[in-house]
Amino acid sequence: MTPGPFTRRAFIRMAAGAAAAPLLPAVSLAANPTETPLHGLSAFGELKYPPDFAHFEFASPQAPKGGSFVFSPSYWYFNQNTQTFNTLNTFVLAGEAPPRIELCFDSLMNWAWDEPDALYCSLARTVTISADRNRYRFELREAARFHDGSAVTADDVVFSYLTIREQGHPQLALDLANLETAEAAGPHTVELVFNGSQSERAILAVANSVPILSRAWYATRDFEAATLEPALGSGPWKVGRFESGLFIEYERVADYWAGELGFARGLDHFDRIRIDFFRERTAFLEAFKKGDIAWREEFTAKFWATEYDFPAARQGRVKQAYFPSEKRPSLQGWAVNTRRAKFADRRTRQALAVLFDFEWTNRNLFYDAYARSHSLFEGSDLAANGPPPAGELALLEPLRDKLPEAAFGEAVMQNVTDGSGSDRSILRKADALFAEAGWRKRDGRLVDANGEQLSVEVLIRSQVFERILGAYTENMRRMGIAASIRLVDPSQFQARLDRFDFDLAGLAFSFENNPTMESLRQYFHSETAGRSGSRNYPGIADPAVDALIAKAGRARTHEELATVMRALDRVLRVHHFWIPNWHSANHRVAYWDMFGWKDPKPDFFFPVERLWWFDRARAAAIGRA
Predict the structure, then answer these.
(1) Cβ density class 520-540: b for 16+ within 10 Å, e for less
(2) DSSP label at 276?
(3) CA dihedral in degrees (462, 463, 468, 471; nearest 10)?
(4) Which of 61, 69, 239, 434 has CB 3.0 to 4.6 Å from 266, enough for a Cys bridge?
């Protein structure tokens, strides 16, 4: 989870709900709908909402406006994990920007949270695709305005795309690598022109992830400067009061230009969103108990089981609830930094994975709250299972000389223990793997051919992980490894991730249901292995992986893509670049009982501060009106 930059997972602003609409004929990219103005796009499937739809189903147009929503960034918004901030410029690598800053900006299209990958026009009114799929013409809504009242024009769009491509944060710029140019064909017409090397679904990776900025505003400012001056936006929120590192408030734009359009109607009910920052979870929990914080998602199983027996909870003023997790492929685990020679052999990485006793950890530390993760695309049909079927073999066979033989067998599963905490088979399996990788025991130390002891430092950003990792690092020490846990503050944690300065680091991500080639490159492609600020944390630079990512970019149906993704998952797992750890089927949410919301939540995203509203009657009943 990384802070700040607009990624396709963080910069998601979309819309509001509507009465159920019948499915329309497919306008998927795979169906090649060219030279026809479209109101939306999807990768392979059908669009749920028609042109000029009133609102999204998950939105609540009748909900009241007003009140505040106060929370803390330990509510991880997909990949964001900011626990402080020192800049409001989220578009570049320098500094750490606060969560939700993306809500201040519009994009050309928005993602519908109740569809796997559908985008609907927002700042743009229509999109038209050229026959060769290299040119996308967007007709902008003439009513679009920045917060100072100036019009959003094609020049602003051109400036935004080209500037971010050249100077933006790597997690934005990488997706634009194949954007040849952006051209204004009129005051409200812009064309994005690709060079032909992009995937057919590349537009889905950038149409809703690139914020549209004011060219005039930046004419007198340095785009790359780390600054606490809020940039001029056009979105439904704007920056209000803040104190760097302590809190930030966002104010709802009452006269938001798109407030009554289908993609925005029925969202954003609070007058104010406030984010308070805490260095440690215990302090955050205490602030919640006092009512200074109104909502929290609990990521610590022990806290969920033991820390919610306080007066307000016993009185029913504070509630605990489960909300189902999103139906998205996810990765949570420890990245093993293969840039370091000691981790170059995949058997070394596999041995480190074996030493983690999930069964004991889940029983004794997690109150059996989690399930073991095995795949890098857990919770989806993109995860590999069993031996490769014919379709996957057809993809793997041409790469046989680039793959370990194990890639052609059963999909790699993580080690299972007896849960006793003293399962000696862990040490035997790990010992055999270390020996195969060239490590030897000498005076109780695990050393290489030069006599240098294997050392493993696990980088963490919160004390809670010391408890979780204690047994894991103890198993390493039993093997003769110089194992340690390094606790750093969130700023240092992110800085070390950005420059790949770690041995092992725990991270979590959510992917699109139909990942694009551009998205996969961020995490797994050799071209990002050495690029600071990318999400290729293990430093994966493998030709077979690159080849499969290219095939994913050419997939024409979800079934074809799923076959490629399962083959990719199989290859990534056999190399043990990541050590998958655990996942949960639910969000664990605690809140002061003064909110309303609409059930069910969207299947693919859960931005509570945009979906819920302040319920004055409930608030009055608990003395919080």
Answers:
(1) bbbbbbbebbebebbbbbbbb
(2) E
(3) 130
(4) 61
What are the CA-CA distances from residue 463 to residues 300, 353, 457, 467, 486 (Å)?
A: 12, 22, 15, 7, 10
Give the phi and the psi of residue 127 in degrees, each rounded to 5.
Answer: -130, 135
Work out the burial of residue 195: count CB atoms within 10 Å of its CB; fewer than 13 is exposed, 13-18 middle, 19 or more buried: exposed
pLDDT of residue 15: 30
Q: Which of 262, 206, 213 is nearest to 235 (CA)?
A: 213
CA distance 54 to 269: 17
User: Three-state SS across 462-494?
Assistant: CCHHHHHHHHHHHHHHHCCCEEEEEECCHHHHH
* Cβ proximity of 339 and 333 under 8 Å: no
The answer to whether 346 and 404 have CB atoms below 8 angstroms apart is yes
Q: Which helix (H) or strand (E) covers residue 296, if one does? A: strand 295-297
Q: What's the residue count for the chain?
A: 625
CATH number of 333-583: 3.10.105.10
Q: Alpha-carbon distance 18 to 54, whole Å?
A: 6
Question: Three-state SS for 220?
Answer: coil
Residue spans of the chain under pLDDT 50: 1-26, 75-81
CA torsion angle 565 568 572 578 (round to 10): -20
Say how far apart CA 611 and CA 58 lie, in whole Å.
8
CA–CA distance, 570 with 403 (Å, rounded to integer): 11
Among candidate residues 339, 342, 352, 331, the one with its CA nearest the CA of residue 568: 331
Output the pLDDT for position 7.
Answer: 40
Where do runs of H (alpha helix) occur along 340-463? 346-354, 358-364, 390-396, 425-436
For the chain, the domains span: 333-583
Q: Encoding tokens for residue 184?
A: 């204004």
Q: Which residues contact 19 (CB under 8 A, 6 or more apart)?
A: 54, 57
CA distance 493 to 461: 6
Please name the amino acid found at residue 299.
F
Q: Which contiguous run of DSSP H or E holds residue 297?
A: strand 295-297
The helix/strand/coil state of 396 is helix
Question: pLDDT tens for residues 165-219?
Answer: 999 999 899 999 999 999 999 999 999 999 999 988 899 989 999 999 999 999 9
Cα gap 202→196, rounded to integer Å: 10
Kindly provide the residue ranges of all beta strands, DSSP E only, lying in 81-157, ordered along the sequence. 109-111, 119-121, 124-129, 135-140
Is 26 strand, coil or helix? Answer: coil
CA-to-CA separations, 413 to 399, 489, 597, in angstroms, rounded: 22, 33, 39
Closest by CA to 59, choosing from 310, 266, 367, is: 266
DSSP structure class, residue 5: S
Give the helix/strand (H/E) hosting 501.
none
Mean of per-residue pLDDT scores for the chain:
92
Encoded tokens for 426? 């862990």
Q: What is the pLDDT of residue 33?
A: 61
d(C-alpha 287, C-alpha 274), whole Å: 14
